[in-house]
Amino acid sequence: MSSTKPERPSRGRDPGLRLRIETAVLPDKKEEESPETDSDQSSPQQSKFKFTLPDNLKWIPSNWTLPKVRPVIRSAVAAWISSVLFIIPAVERYMGQVSAFLSPPADPFIGVVEREVIIIGIVALVWGWSCFGMFLANLARSNTDPTVTFVAAISGQYIEAGPTVIIAVFIFLGSVFLLYLRARQGPGPYLFACILGCICLDITLTAAILIPYPYYKLGRSIIIPLGFHSAISVLVSILIFPQTVSAEFTTRLQGVLAPLIKSLELQCALKQNPADSKEFASIAEQIKASVRQAEAGLIPLAITARLLPSDLIYARFAPTDFKSLQAIARRMAVRANGLTIYFALIEPTRERFPMTPIPSRPVTPGATPGGTPGATTPGGSPGATTPQRMSSRPASPERQSTTNTDAEDDQDGWLNHHRKSRTISCAPHVHHLHHHHHHHHGPLHNLLHNSLLHLSLSRAKNEQAVGVFESQRYMDIEATMFHDPDAIPHTQQAMNLLFHCCDPLLKANRSAVSAISDWLRDARRGRFAFWRSAKQKKTAWQTKFDTLKKTRDDLEALLKEFKSQNRFEVLEPYKPVLEAKGDVEQDSPSHRYLFHCYVYQYHLMRFTAQIIEMLDEIIRLEQERPRNHIWTPARKLFTWNNWNLSDINDDEEDPHLVQGLDPSVMDDLGMANKRDPDALPPHNVFEWVMNQLYMFFRGCGGGNALYAVKAGILTVIMFIPSFLTTSAEFAYENRFVWAIIMAQLTLARFRGDTTFGWVARVLSTFLGGIVGSVIWYISAGSGHGSPYGLAAVLAVCYPFFFYARLYWPGPPMTNIIFFVTTVLVIGYSYQDHYIILPGNPGSGIDVAWRRFVLVTVGVTAAFIFSFLPPATTIRRYQRTLLATTSSELGAIYCSVISFASSRRLQEVPEVVTSLIAIRSKLSRSAVLRTNAIYEFSLRGRWPAERYKKILDLQMQIAYSLSHLMSIMEHMEPSWTRAFLVRTRFLDPNFQGDLLAVISMISTSLRTGDPLPQITPCPLVDRFMLKYHGFSVIHKEAEEDFGLPRTLTLETLQDEQYLMFCVGVSTAFGIVSRLDRLMLAVKEIVGEQYHLHGVSTSFRVGVEMGSRTNTLTLRTPNGV
What we know:
Layout: H1 15-41, H2 44-48, H3 59-62, H4 66-87, H5 89-95, H6 109-140, H7 150-153, H8 161-185, H9 189-210, H10 220-239, H11 245-269, H12 278-305, E1 313-315, H13 323-340, H14 387-390, E2 399-400, H15 413-421, E3 423-424, H16 430-436, H17 442-460, H18 468-482, H19 487-521, H20 534-564, H21 575-579, H22 584-587, H23 591-624, E4 629-631, H24 685-700, H25 703-718, H26 720-723, H27 725-733, H28 737-746, H29 751-780, H30 787-807, H31 812-834, H32 845-865, H33 874-902, H34 907-928, H35 944-970, H36 973-983, H37 988-1007, E5 1011-1012, H38 1019-1023, H39 1049-1053, H40 1055-1085, E6 1087-1088
Parallel strand pairs: 5-6
Antiparallel strand pairs: 1-4, 2-3
């Protein structure tokens, strides 16, 4: 493609620079003026009454739909029924009170039954454990008197040392078990059961210490109200808007498909915007956000899918029939992520390599001057431009100047402003760069030099700049191989052709996914339409079936047409040269623009194939399930480990282990095994037994076990006021058990979670106490409380409360504690006026104040105790986890390459499962790190943004490995061999460097040791040892694997060539992200092994032939 040549640059400035700045500024002015014009034309009345809901309240209208309001009504009715029973004094004396806000019946019927059965089972188990403790304590008691009243017993005069020690042991062991189970199972059906079990344990054994005989009925005050609550919840979930697990599953599956539909609509709209416009970048970000939303929807979908085998439903489709749709939806989300890769490849939205400002020093003639080039194109292939074309092109395009400075470390406002907003552009010729760079920069060079100097000096106040070696080599690569002055017009041309040929398929995909969503919505509709005749039902079914079949056939026909014809439109810029037998490397746009288009086309075809597969599955179900049946969980209802799923289980027992990862993946070579560095393998039976005992006791020292033991010790310490005769009466009358429960439940495994719990519980208790007091005073009026007024007020408040309880997007802990405190204040206030019991806390504000004080005491005790050993921090856990995932990604990478080489199909499920486990582990760690900001340290702030960068890069590598595995599955063996040769993935020298980088990253993160200042990075330089361009086989290669050496139009149209190009781009993305990961880790751990005299200057314009290194060693001065 020929383009207009720019004018001859003047001595100090490139005229293209001024033009680029002007074209970038003028549209901004128009955009700034357009809102003013619109506002002038709008009427004052319109602007006066215009109201926009704040962002923190947008959850209210977004959840205001009938399917989401139904659980609110169901939960409110259950809570109101419980309140009415509580208001009746005779019933209240027998029932007691329990908060319905802990476990509202908002789930499907089977989910409610499962949760309530687990709650009753664990609380009953705790009650039995408490009774056993009372029995043993009574055996040690020297004075047993069953005639003592409870009022007399709370004075503490009957406390004895022996029974108290036995009760303390039972408190400790019971707390350890419950809190370990809570930490091990994570959020789910066991959470509230463990919490209520701890409450039962604390209340029963607190009173058991005081009574001089075994009063086994103490647990009734907990188990009876829970029984009422469970019965009401189960009945309400059946009678009021009953919901099945299948219904919830299909609704959540629609929640996964809806963002995918939106992303397809946005991609159809992309063709209307230039590639270098702000609108294009904005839409690209919206597409990525939509795909992330779809991926996030897979987690609640997996939670619901767990109970599908236990569902009870009358419908055509069995609950387990939908499991296959879940697997396809997960693959669709991965393919949708592949479509977004295109936006990380093209200018100007491509990923950038972070530039590190070098220390201030005199500029050497060998240094690469000019602006700071960005990252190499991840999807770019080896050698984006030929060596001959590079000599006539500017050395560096416009790049946004970035540094590796953490955003949290920027204290200076001037520095922060320039770091975010400055754009530096420089376009001198390559030969001018090499010989005359001192004379052809002018003010722009001074501006760049001063900016880098300021950044370097600013960083020097706190920490030394890292990654200078890698950054300078990337600048050399960018200047010599990746710069194209016509990048924007070539990108725009390729993008226009790409979206023109893909537009029909995108629209068809959007219609097909919408049809699937509509089918999911109507899958259970008409089950109870008994008044309709069989003929009417048959006609309606046939119409729906024909529509689905037509949608599927049309989509398949369009996909075949796209593969055989439409996708070739992106070859238009290359056809004239190929038909004229010219040099396509010289006379046409760079091959990377074609590779970028192929990346998008491949993922679009795979995404379409997944849609067709889902339509095939739906059509199969429609044919095989013609009639309604009652599907029951007769053979399998619940199992103990049903909740233990790798993609939803929040247990983070061991940062050295990735849950769900098959250990065999790490041993696929049969020789890569871990060894004990301190002992040889056992040589006899005794050594084997001792080794097994050592492994067992080391396993008992896991994070969850140590946390549970520590929490048990804290619980016993908090019981001390109830153990002593002098303070037992005071503790009981002032409800000190509240402080015990709060301390027990606030202490978490990580110090940051405990600190957050301290802040959240204090704040939510204070606000909940105020709201509860206000509601009580409104219902009581000027009297001592009216049961009718209280019932009426609660009937009005409960729907609003449960709407916020279920859908407020804040922390669940804050949400629950707020509403539990509100209900407790109301309940104890009413109880104080109608039922006289020892230790009544009063009513209204008196209850709220006492509750607030005791909660503050409990959470403060937990906060202080969290600093005592063994103290675990999220910071250390995050670093260890990222080290583990780095190592596992390396193992999975080896498995992918091994599959490509050996083609053993049994490896595919293992690799796919491992990649899912890695992504799930990283996703959970992103949630876990939220509370790391509460782990304040006197040493300084935690570099949260730097750790987030590492996590994001690892997630991108995991997705790239998924895409590479998909490509390897569909590529023919000969093309696979050619791919492995071009990418050097079977070259032991390159693989040694790559695996060494992964090992260094993992080890450095695990130990915290600094990395060498000079490493094999950038791997991209070694990856592109030889220039290939469009060619499949290098011209100097001896073996061609039966593939064409000469590039023809037929070769470019071959689908195997398309997958070959996509594989090269994906491999390049993996390698370049490893380079960025190395720099990101250096920003955390620093560097070591400095070598004086090693230059960071490189030759510019080196041809990509047989060279092995761009590093030039200069002779020291004076030698």
